[in-house]
Design a protein that fits this description.
The chain has about 250 residues and is an alpha/beta fold. The protein is built from ten helices and ten strands. Strands 4, 5, 6, 7, 8, 9 and 10 form a seven-stranded mixed beta sheet that branches. α5 runs parallel beside α6.
């Protein structure tokens, strides 16, 4: 999996990262459709920032944050602010286009700094196994530690990505939900084609269960039994299962 060595990006200081730099990187070096990148960035900018990172200022379709610095007040878009903090937000179903963007973000942040941690906030119902495995492999490929945090829900492939974070750096918020289950799919046509699909789903099932077992510390048999049907876990149960290492409760003393 190629990582760009272009000096434009390898020499970029992390505090100067913005969405325009990422857009150029994703389109030029990963050949992601520019229209989809623009749509993704536009959708992202229309969301509110997570509480505690900064203050959002509603300005139509593209909110900006006002950040007070020692010598001045800076305005920047939400995506650039999160990228500056090396935060990736996976807040949608996992399909090819979204997966390509997430992989490009991971590789882009590695090219900017190959040592600093990257954080992925996950609130996803899952999606395509193949697209999710692309993100998983990229997480394992890059040199950076990847911290994963479940906010809301990490289900199906989202749960696989959650547990795939660096050991000791996987977390969930108190009321988050984690769900694992067996992969699903369908087939029609000639018997031979149906058998091919059946064997592929069976291989994927074993592969996913092994990934969960390897990262959670649970036995393969335990994962197999739990995943026979939808297996929902609250944050405490996810910690006991080994899906996360800690539960983030904040520091407000509430």
């Amino acid at each position: 999996m190629p990582v760009s060595k272009n000096k434009t990006y390898t020499n970029t200081m992390s505090n100067n990262i913005d969405k325009n730099e990422f857009r150029k990187y994703a389109v030029k070096h990963h050949r992601i459709n520019s229209l989809f990148v623009d749509k993704y960035l536009g959708n992202f900018d229309s969301r509110r920032m997570p509480q505690g990172i900064a203050t959002t200022v509603p300005t139509g379709m593209t909110p900006y944050i006002i950040e007070e610095r020692q010598l001045n007040v800076a305005q920047m878009d939400v995506f650039s602010r999160l990228m500056m903090d090396r935060i990736i937000f996976l807040g949608d179903a996992i399909y090819e286009n979204i997966a390509n963007i997430i992989q490009a973000q991971l590789l882009f942040l590695q090219s900017a700094d190959a040592k600093r941690d990257i954080q992925i906030y996950i609130n996803s119902p899952g999606g395509s196994v193949y697209a999710g495995l692309g993100i998983y492999d990229t997480m394992q490929f890059i040199s950076n530690d990847v911290a994963t945090i479940c906010t809301g829900m990490a289900a199906s492939m989202g749960a696989v990505l959650l547990v795939a974070g660096t050991e000791g750096k996987r977390a969930a918020l108190p009321h988050a939900r984690v769900m694992i289950h067996q992969p699903s799919g369908g087939a029609q046509g000639q018997q031979s084609d149906i058998e091919i699909t059946y064997h592929e789903i069976t291989k994927l099932k074993k592969e996913l269960y092994q990934i969960i077992a390897d990262h959670s510390g649970a036995s393969f048999e335990k994962v197999w039994d739990a995943s026979d049907r939808d297996y929902w876990m609250i944050a405490e149960e996810a910690k006991e299962f080994g899906m996360v290492d800690e539960i983030l409760r904040g520091n407000k003393g509430k």
